[in-house]
Design a protein that fits this description.
Number of strands: 8
Largest sheet: 8 strands, mixed
Number of helices: 5
Strand order of the largest sheet: 1-2-3-4-5-6-8-7
Order of helices and strands: EEHHHEEEHEHEE
Number of domains: 1
Helix content: 25-40%
Shape: globular
Structural class: alpha+beta
Low-confidence stretches: none
Radius of gyration: 16 Å
Length: 177
């Protein structure tokens, strides 16, 4: 898998490596990241290693690190999960672990790169995602990257005893009409 860079050369995606585990676990357990995930349980090193063994290695998931600058400083991760090769679709996910990288367009650039990878390298037709309906900043970023709102699900998930609404968004491969 090649390294993907945005046009400005500022944001890159590289394959996730085993050595990234501790960083990913720390980011996923931080309040700034965890609060945006539907699954809020504490993230463990063992769980991540199992994820790599059972999901990444068999090709059910592609996970990359989001890196900044020439020094390729990791600031987050992006992934495609539940890759369905028959229907040519997958669920998209992202988190920016480094607070200093948030609100700077890094997530939008990373999404564009992962969309390009999914369509060109994996031959997928559609990517979809789920986002809390009240996460306006994320929704704006996804829209800038090319995702469109497809559905609004009322009271779809229960987090800390409160039901929350979810927006489903998707992007389709423009080369397939």
């Amino acid at each position: 898998m090649a390294i993907y860079r945005d046009e400005a050369g500022e944001v890159s995606l590289r394959p996730m490596e085993l050595e990234d585990t501790d960083l990913i676990v720390a980011w996923r357990n931080s309040d700034g990241v965890r609060k945006h995930f539907i699954y809020q349980a504490p993230f463990t090193r063992e769980g991540h290693l199992s994820w790599i063994e059972n999901m990444v290695k068999p090709g059910k998931v592609v996970q990359m690190m989001i890196c900044l600058g020439e020094e390729m400083r990791p600031v987050g991760s992006v992934y495609l999960r539940d890759i369905d090769r028959q229907h040519r679709k997958a669920e998209y996910g992202i988190f920016i672990g480094e607070e200093s990288a948030r609100g700077r367009g890094v997530g939008t650039a990373a999404a564009r790169l992962m969309i390009r990878y999914a369509f060109r390298e994996l031959g997928l037709h559609r990517l979809f995602l789920r986002v809390y309906a009240d996460n306006a900043r994320a929704i704006r970023s996804y829209e800038k990257a090319g995702f469109e709102r497809e559905a609004y699900l009322k009271d779809d998930v229960c987090i800390d005893g409160k039901f929350r609404d979810i927006v489903l968004m998707a992007v389709r491969n423009p080369d397939e009409g």
